[in-house]
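Notes to self after the call with IL:
- keep both proteins in one doc
- input above output, always
- annotate only the second one for now

Protein 1:
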Amino acid sequence: MITGKSGPSSASPGHSTTGLNLLLCEADERAPVLERDLGTSSATTQERLSKTVLPKTLWNEGGDPNSLPEQRWGLIIPEGDAGDRLRDLIAPLIEHRKKQQDLAEIVVVRAPAKADQAEAMEWRKRNFDTGADTREDLPRYQLILGNLDQVALAIQQVQAIDGYVGRLAFDNPEHYRAYAEKVVRYETGRQRPGPSRATFFTVHDGTEATSAGYRSLVSPGVALAQRKVMERKLAAREIVDLGDKVIPSRDELLAQVAAQDPSVLFTLSHGAGAPRSGWKTAEDQRLRQGAMSFGSDGLLLGRDLANRPFLPGGIWFMLACYGAGTPDGSAYKHWLESLSQNGEFGGPASSVLKGLPKSGERPFIAALPQAVLQNPEGPLAFMGHIDLAWTYSFTELDSGSAMDRPAKFIQIISDLLKGNRSGIAFRSLMLALGSANTELTSLYDRQAMTGAPANTKLESKRGHLWMLRQDLASYIVLGDPAVRLPIAETNGVPDSATPTVISTATTPATTPAATPTVTPNSASTAGSFYFGGATPIVPEPIDLDRIERAVAQVILSPQNLDSIAKEAHLSPSELRAHCDRYRRAGRAALQ
């Protein structure tokens, strides 16, 4: 992934000055592939994006998106006998989904192994949404079976524009059955009490790429999620920011996600690319490319996670180059070649793109998500990137200055914690893709209609939008898009965990309800919110919302207590007393 370098601390909130860095390391040396960043002006050197015709609205947009009887579930499989074999392997899941959609037949559509975007759109019109009938029987939830050489990546990208689409791809055919049985087991078994937790884990390996990703995405994203919890707009038992900031450790991550506690995991790291001398064999590349790099602590490989508890019943979003897989060609190939010819970065474009399959070799889903999805004690879904990923997905530059926009990723986490299906949560990125598509094609159309040459400002805006569009289009879901966290519905923050704050007049003997409390975490300076406890007898409150917001701000920024107190119309001593009561109440509930 390529990510941005934040500017000085004097920059206004949400803004940063940005260079382009690559979250891709060499598999053996684990050194960054690009030694220095690229200037943002390089984004203007790109191919014209062909105009995209978006599908018309499908299905029941006014209905419950989580309802399978209303939205339906179906399959997209390879052509020929290979597709039949894969369909038979997931028979338990097919039967389970058929029951969930009131015994409506499962729609099965066959798709080609090779197709570009235009050919995928044509396939869609001929085989999926033909226009010969109304659309209420079309499956909005679509599970693709087969690797990237069996069903083209472009099919998945086109279908995901307005559908909930995921892919199952395993090198071992028996793993399809193992995954199907795992999903059925979790969905028919006892649902764990909610709410669940979200863990953000950054590999702080000292490189500019991971540092910038933490500054621009993870840190503000965690703060945003925590604020939503405090405002009772998000049900979360815990929001945790982890990752040792001195010595990255695989063991730290493995220990944090081993428990039988279905939750959401968001990781930021380098993804393993080709060694300096290149991959010796295609098999070695498929085993190691896209693995999670921990710097001097080595790579976290698929084989490391295949047979141990790793996020059981959870959902993993991995942000790294090639984390989800490797396509047969990169969307950035011509752009990188142009930069190389113009001397805007050292070395040929092949130094960055040597991870792409050679002639005669196949594109592939990475070994890491394959391993965790087949694991009976692994996650139910995986989200990741299938090309070189850039900061453009969370640091947008088309407005003329860098704006950090982590919300689209936090929306995914929020939707998952609320119990929405993974396909619905992932739609946050697809909506952003549609917006970028529309704006980009309108700029091309405007220039074509006026006949005026593009000026520097327009070229820059168009270039940044092109990068944003390509970046967003390369995120995919692996696993069934209809899965969700196996937790009991919470309908927001549980009543028993409703935050309360006691007036300064409250006697010290009064014990308020358990409230979201920030407690220090040994691995991070950020805190974790906890819920629990019983509802107490509370004296008459005084403007609880105002006091609660002030307490939450102090917890996140204790150095700003005086200014926060002034804004809340409290004295510093009053606000400090509220914070002390708030902490004591929450910790007492955990005992």
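Protein 2 (the one to annotate):
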Amino acid sequence: MKKVLCILLSAVMALSGLSVMAFAEETAADLGIAVGSDLHYNVPSEELETVIEGDDIYWYANRRAALEEESGLIIDEFLAQCAKDDTVEYVLIPGDLADNGKSIQQEHIDVAEKLKKFEEESGKDVFVIPGNHDYGVDCATNLDDFVRIYADFGFDKAIETFEGTASYTADLGDKYRLIALDSCDPTVSTADGMSLKEIMWVCDQADKAYEDGRYPILMMHHNLLDHLPMQRIVSKNFIVRFHYTTATLFADHGIKVVFSGHEHCNDTTSYTTPSGNTIYDFATTSLSMYPIQYTVMQLNDDTISYNAKTITSIDTEALTSTVKGYTEEQLALMNEDFNAYAKGFLKAGVRYRLELSLSMEKMGIAEDAIYYNLVNTAVSGLTDILKMPLYGENSVQELAKEYNIVIPESNYETPWDLATELVAAHYAGEEAFNVDNTEVAILLRTVALILHSDLATVNDEVFISVVNSLLDSMGITSTATQDIRKLAAKIFGGVKPGEYFITLLISPLLYEFAFDGDAVPDNNGEFAGYNSDVTNLDNIMTNISNMFNKLLIYFENAFVVIGRMFGIN
């Protein structure tokens, strides 16, 4: 009997194994790629220099919060992980390979050497395009230099190119074609430089890909879609001009997947055209900054899946053999969890940059501007409160009580600690700080406190006259402020109109920065492939549903959140 059972079990296991193998063959990816953007490689310094006085750990952090000295070793680890990953067939890099690439050509030479070594040892191909840091007119590195140095990484496999740029197309595997788009303006620091001819060239290349039986994938440095609330306004040089028009053209010509960088955040978002074609823009964070991640994507006809991969360690022995000045405590933290170290570095760098920027001179506001006194008052109050402890004597919590604002308990020490934590969450993607989170409550109520305390020194009529002047300059009737005052009084009672006017404008922006509500997972997800049975009507209905949900979130921000800020509910 035992022998019979053994035979039956063996048969079942064998059949199970065959079925698993068959399933694996059916679902095996047609294409596997890794995307690591904004390498920002720096030639290492001989020794660290102090930048932030008084910081025990991150005293060499910089304004960009980029791990410049460690950048080369991060690239090494990224390439090593791609070499070991059997699901990765190709590596794509959407620009900014070097940090000072325009002026220091050696940075490009060093990166190219690393990529060449990777290709030779792994047998996997690398494809690159330039970013705004990589070449320029009348610079040490021009367009011809860039193409020459990186000749082996896409340009040598080019099917077609666009003259006067570093744009090209190349095949990836048997089913896909890469459209590598040089979106940069070599004469301007960060803005996109794409002409209408280049945009139409992309559309033409997408059509040709389909004619050849291939699906088009687009790689560009600038973002195609918004990855910040109001990105077109607050970060305009990081997203292409006329982005919805351009996205509509690309999507309606059959492009479904776009890889971009530039914004240094992990964020995936989508856009559905009026015709029902959906395009996904994958903004990939900088490899030299927290969260030090890259994206691995698997593509089939029916599904496209993606996962974020994290760099958690580097060769610190190699680091200290090149750069002097690291302390034992810094190295111990790096070796314990390099990603956590990078987060602390980011928070220190962000605070340093913002503290330097929070002045009227740095913001470019002249003394004769109609809103100078108002903004100067707000900025002074903002910087004072950000520096205060959140709890205890002479704290934000104590000051807030004077205005009947409750600051919830938490483990954060200062508003700066909280603000930089939210910035780190934005860079990492999957922002999950909704209205029920303590972080959002503290953030918005601290904003309310700043508005209360700052505007307490500003006469209502002065504030309203400034607002009216601004609205008049934009061609908007000045009676809009009266309507807002009436609405605020009706809903919230007798509170200074200036507070609610500003809050109504900025609270959705702050909230959306902390909470990603676009229904597309940033780091790990799956959506319909190029040849799935999802119809354009399905896409349109999904888009309508997402837009409706976003409107609900906005109104919740504009009313419920404002109410919570002022302790109304």
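Annotation: Residues 1-27, 487-495 have pLDDT under 50 and may be disordered. DSSP finds 19 helices and twelve strands in the chain.
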